[in-house]
Amino acid sequence: MLGTTDYTEKKTVLIATVMKKQKKVLEEISELNSLAKTLGAIVIKEFIQKIKYKKPKTFIGKGKMEEIKRFIRVNNINLVIFNDNLSPSQLKNIEKTLISEVVDRTKVILDIFSKRAKTSYAKAQIKLAQYKYALSKLPKLWTHLEKQRGGIGFRGPGESEIETDRRNLRKSINKLNQNIKLIDKQMNTQRKHRNNNIIRISLVGYTNVGKSTIMNILSKAKVATVENKLFTTLDTKVRKIKIKKQIFLLSDTVGFINNLPTQLIDSFKSTLSEIKESDLLIHVIDITKNSFIKDIKYVENILLEIGIKKNLIIKVFNKIDRCSELNIKQSIINKKYKDIKNILFLSALQKPSIKLLKQKIYALTKRIHRKKCIKKNDK
User: Fold this and answer.
1) Rounded CA separation 152/164 (Å)
2) What are phi and psi for residue 194, nearest 5 degrees?
3) Predicted confidence (pLDDT) per residue in 253-276, tens digit
4) For every residue of 8-55, which 3-state class applies, written as one string?
5) What span, in angstroms and rounded, lies between the C-alpha atoms of 330 and 320?
6) pTM recorded for the entire structure
């Protein structure tokens, strides 16, 4: 449980609960389905239960639990994924009842991040998030950690198993925090040595909206992996781009997702500092999704959380070539957002769209460029 779970070709069922609006949970379980498939799981069935309150022992009701148990037994299900975050006791009780491996949404997202991490920096950030998650699940995890004792630490005389694990995890967390702070310091030094007269742009948005595609096209190089999967970009990539003889620094950042684990938000705040220093943000949105308005709000909330308040932002509604209800959605957007001057509808795969984006970037940053030039001349 401390490491990543093996999802590959495991027959899986998903479980979600709804307390108010059914529409919201359908969107969330669809997203959970995508998360599971990203890790290679084979989703056989989705279970949804309306509940008045969360059951302290098993989260969902006894009747639904028995229904799921029968389905698992008949269909030889290997894995159960809950859309909600489960307490240690709930995880333990549910596994005991269903006689199957059980993980929650937070664990799935952490495992995807762990699988996607390429650089030592990203790996350290994700490992930190995993340790924090493990610390919160210790009553459920202690027997598993005992099997990995060589990699974590040894029990002292008279100490309880769980206290030993807690102490060792905290030591690991402190060590990782120190390592990350050291890397952050080095990265901040590198940022300070950049040419401050160059305009900085960051691509932000929900996961799998097309940020990496836009990054590759604008930079005229394959600097970011493009896949129709969640979280293909974890490490911030910075490249120079040129528009009408003007040089810009363009950053591609990690994508967001609804209910992103707090452990990951905390761990990646330093990575997201690239966004804070940007002169212009390009907020990329997948207009083909029914939940695109909700996605916008979620991304905006995360930006506020990391201290982004007054940055200049272009909203780019991407994938218009694949949107069957484009006119309806454009009408909704134009009514919802007053500042339509900074809104673009485009397809990152079409040259006229990219030309339009470049024109918008150049026009919006003219004033910023002049200010930077004035500051340079004053010095």
Assistant:
1) 10
2) -70, 160
3) 778 888 777 777 776 666 677 788
4) CCCEEEEEEEECCCHHHHHHHHHHHHHHHHHCCCEEEEEEEEECCCCE
5) 10
6) 0.82
